[in-house]
């Protein structure tokens, strides 16, 4: 008996809202609890678009296919309902919120997940935040910094990981592409993800990255290659190693079979079950 997937994406197509041109052209992906999946692919292949569609970004419109998350029809949920259901999206370019401390930002995020009429106990929240920061070996003073205001790459990532630690998502979608991760930021992400998964081995991760080196620090169970809005290859960590050696040129101009699932993605499914 295989465990029920936490996320099942079937034939997902999507375009930019108000435009004709499709970006995602039939994406299939199944993630089970506790699995780490990496999506790699050349610039412009649709990786960030996939992350944004999963998060419910208003600028993108799903046009076909289905996404099931923990029994919910994900595409029918508003962005805040998705977050409440347990999806976390780490933005590729997190916004600056000068004047708002990390602690206040997180408090609002936690409050917004409560049922209507429920009040967040500020003392309980403060204790919980301190406990979460200690778990991640973070200096408590960091919570008083303003969100992303003048943050280094590593500090932005620290903020992102802290949000995950506080919100405890079932699935974290992390789009790290092009974010210019220096080695410090990379280690923050990797240590954070690894600690959170040690704490809750059922947490699933969808890690989107252009570069193989992040996968030296976070070991994925499955690696998928996205080209032109489709997953053209799926396999284990060896897929990432092959990419490092060969680059994306093997995939250039490659169009997968029209049913959207390559033979290798089928073998992934049998491995997963
Ligand atoms: N808001 C948008 N308006 C117009 N084109 C877009 C928009 N978002 C993405 N695209 C186009 O869709 C393609 C995929 O983009 P993206 O998902 O950001 O790729 P990746 O993250 O793999 O680099 C690119 O050709 C990009 O120019
Ligand atoms: Mg991107």
Count of extended strands: 12
> In order across it, which strands form the biggest sheet?
6-9-10-3-11-12
Radius of gyration: 19 Å
Number of domains: 1
Residue runs with pLDDT of under 50 for 5 or more positions: 257-273
Structural class by secondary-structure content: alpha/beta
The ordered H/E elements are: EEEHEEHEEHHEHEHEHEEHH
Shape: globular
CATH class, please? Alpha Beta
Number of helices: 9
CATH topology: Rossmann fold
Largest sheet descriptor: 6 strands, mixed
Determine the strand fraction and express it as a percent band. 25-35%
Task: Walk me through what this model shows.
There is one protein chain. By secondary structure, the chain is an alpha/beta fold. It has a single domain, classed as Rossmann fold (3-Layer(aba) Sandwich), CATH 3.40.50. The protein has helices at residues 47-55, 79-85, 102-112, 122-135, 153-167, 183-199, 214-217, 238-246, 263-272; strands at residues 7-16, 22-31, 36-40, 60-69, 72-73, 87-90, 97-101, 146-147, 171-175, 204-208, 222-227, 230-235. Strands 6-9-10-3-11-12 form a six-stranded mixed β-sheet, sandwiched between helices. β1 and β2 (22-31) form a beta hairpin. α3 (102-112) runs parallel beside α5 and α5 (153-167) runs parallel beside α6. The radius of gyration is 19 Å and the shape is globular. The model is unreliable at 257-273 (pLDDT under 50).
